Structure formats: C-alpha cells, structure tokens
Amino acid sequence: MLITSRKSWELSDADATPEAVYRDRRRFLKLGVGLAAGMAAGPLFAPRSGLAAPSENKIKDILQSKYRILEKATERDKFLNYTNFYEFATSRDQIVERAEAFATRPWTVEVAGEVKHAGTYDVDDLLRPNRREERIYRHRCVETWSMIVPWVGVPLADVVKRLEPTSKARYVAFETLHDPERMPGQKRPVLEWPYVEGLRLDEALNPLTVLAVGAYGETLAPQNGAPIRLVVPWKYGFKGIKSIVRITFTETEPPTSWNRSSPDEYGFYANVNPDVSHPRWSQAKERLIGDFFKRRTLKFNGYGEEVAHLYQNMDLSKFF
Amino acid sequence: MHRQRIVWWAVFAALSAPLAWLGVLAATDGLGANPIEFVTRYLGDWALRALLAALAPTALNILFGWTGAVRLRRMVGLYAFAYAVLHVSSYVVLDQFFDWAAIWADVIKRKYITAGMATVAILSLLAATSWAGAVRRLGAKTWKRLHRGVYAAALLACLHYAWMVKADLTGPALHAAVLAVLLGVRMAAFTKKRLTPLRPR
What we know:
The structure holds two protein chains of two kinds. By secondary structure, chain A is an alpha+beta fold. Helices cover 19% and strands 22% of the residues of chain A. Chain A has nine helices and 13 strands. In chain A, β4 and β5 form a beta hairpin.
C-alpha cells in the first residue's frame, strides 16, 4: 500500500475551489451587473495585442520538479497583467504597455565580489548546464494577494556552486538593469535605482530558491522580470528581484531597495509571516487572485519544513 | 429649461458617470485580476474627487462671482458622501467580508485607515444635516460651524490617500495641490475682506 505524507505547502483537495463553483461565480458576476451594457462595451476589452502566446517562446524539455503546490495555477493572463514593476511604471496597466517592447537579448550578467569565477556572462551561458525545471509555488505579495505560479528556472544553488564563492562570501546581492531609456519608470525617483536585493548565502543555497527564466512553460514576459529573475517562495514577492544584470558575493549584508525606502516597513529578510503585522497591511490573511474569500497566510508561506531551520534563534519580529 | 437647471443636471450626470462606468467594467470582466482591489480604489478615487469638487463652487463664486455655483454644493457634497460610503462598503464587505476584528485592528493600527474612517464619520454628519430643515433646527451659525468640518474631511481624505500609497506620491500630491488651491482662494478672500474697509455703495 502506498502511503503519501502531505507536505505543509501542499494543499488538501478540500481547500481548492472546485472548478464548478468557480465557474458559477464567474457567470454570476458577469450576469449580475447588466448584460446589455456588457454586450455594448464588449469590444472595448478585446485582448491586448502582444499578450497572445507566441509558440516560439515555449521552453523545451522541462523537468517536473517535486516542488509543486497541488492547486490550480492562476490564469496566465492574470499573471501577465497583474504585476508590480516600478522600473516601467507604478500603475499596472502602464507596466504591461511599456514593457511590451523591452528587449531581453542579448543580456549579460556580471558576477563580482567574493567569488572565484567573477566575470561577465551571457545569461544563457550562466544557466546552460542546468536542465530547466518547473516549480509550482504560491507567490505571496506583501500587498496581501497571492498567485499559484508554475515557474520555470534553475536552482540558484547550482549556479552559485559553479561560480564558487570564496570562504569570505556570506551574502549574495542582486541588481536590476538600470537604463531609464528602456525602463522609463526609472526616470522618476520613486525608489532609488537600480533596484537591489539580497539573500544570505544559506538562503541562496536552499533548494527552493530559483533563478526563473520562464513561467507557464514559456519564457518570461518582460513585465514579469525577463530574462532572469529571482524566486524565493517563502519570502514576500518584492524579494524576487527582476531583470537581473549583476550578482555580487559579499561579506556584509547588502542593502535592499524597499528596506532603504521604508526601513520600518520592509526588512532584509521579508519572510512571509502572518504573526508579524506590517504597518500597512495585516499579514494574517491573503487573497489568492481569483478567489473571493481571503485565506489564512501560512508562516514561511507554508515552507517551514524546508526553511525554518535557517532562522533558528532569530527573533523574527525583529528580523522581519 | 433655466440655465441653472441645465448646469445642475450636467454636474449630476458627470458625477454619476464613474459609477455607471464601474458597472460596465464589472459586467464586461474589465476589473482586472484583483477586482476587489480595483473596485475599492476606484470608489476611493471618486470619493476624493467629488469631495474636492464640493469645495469648488465657493471658490468659483469668489473668483468669478458666479453665485449660482453655490447651489451645486449640496448635491456634489452628497455625491462625495455616497462614493465614500460605497468605498468603505467595498472594504468592509468585499475586502474584509465583515471580519470586524480585522477591521477594528486596521482602524486602530493603520493610520491611513484611521484617517479614512474619520473622513467618513465627518461626511456622515454633514450628509445627515444637509437638508434645508437642518439649518433651521440647528440655527444658521451652528450649522455653518458644523459644515466647516468639510475642510477637516478633505484634509483627512488627502492624508488617507498619501499614507496609503507605497512609494509613488504623484497621485496624492496632485489631489493635495487641488485642495491647496481651493483653500487658498478662500483664505485670500477672507483676508481681503478683513483688510478692506467696507465702503458704502
């Protein structure tokens, strides 16, 4: 007899919204406000050009990782259109518009600091030895929404190990492209540019941490952080730095953008934690995009078994 | 139709249009990936805009001597109240789904929600005393003093918006600038009235 033990981040069947209920709700919402108005205005909301899925973006030979949340993935269209990427704009509609023509090849990543193989790498070379794998994670934004995203990428640990950090390296710092001509949102000092993020080396080496190049089986769209972004599923979304051009190994804790902007709101660690209330939002609950009711947020976004040991003896309300 | 009536109905229609448009968006799947957030923010935006618009007639009167504008004040103010109530309802019903413990925690812990709720409390008082009979019952002086609360409401609403925003203060700054102009016009008129001795005509 086969006995399967359920991981903390897997979801019981009863938790997921049954497809039929979901569909009924959509139908109800659509009918509720007035069919006539809907019919008349319908053509206004034809899908934007450029969002149709061109097949040349398909990523081939994807390995199915064991890290998969057993829940229906968020609709791809919502993943593409609902995002924060202040490098392009602060309004979600504008982000998609302005990111559309963003060129993601050629793309190089500079590796620097306490590391043996420092240098400038073509992004494809940096990841070449790895087979792409699919990780289905819940993406939990600090704004208290979440999505189920089938990321495609490689474990950051493999890349770090190939680059061989020196014995002095204790942190990994990441930097987003800074090019206001291509990323017009950077023309205004909404945040200090370029966007920077960082992880402790042991966090970077955790098997859950991924450098993502795709989602939903295709290469990333620019607004989602193409061509290469970080995904750290037990941390709030803003840790997942996008469009990375520099990776630096450091001895000391590197600065991080949101922490620099509002230190009392955003810490270096930014682990998902329902018990540590944020001055702006209670983090006790979250709304999965597509759901009506909020659900309870899980500590470490449900990945406690895999990552809680990293923070033993740390006061997580202090190191938030 | 009298010109004044036409203006009244035009303003009425202009203020209903955002609500109608929201209905169209809802009916056509146009609310985006996070419809609850969209609806709440949309209603909040229009509550603030209507509230600023309610301060405009007096400024128009001062600047251009358009006395008729003052007759629009109550209707525009009641629209501001209506949008504010819908905005709060969206938060209470759609966002929190009557989780009163979470709502109360928000009100006491998060200053932007404290400011927002205070705004709605003030607007409720003003709306409740907006009918003609209320002026008689309260006495013109008391009524006027009470309805100066609209300035507090407008200031709090702007603060609510500014404190809510994460990093980009463009929107809050724009609305605050409009409020500053509207208040500036009143202040200039007030000081002028005090400094210029009245002359018999």
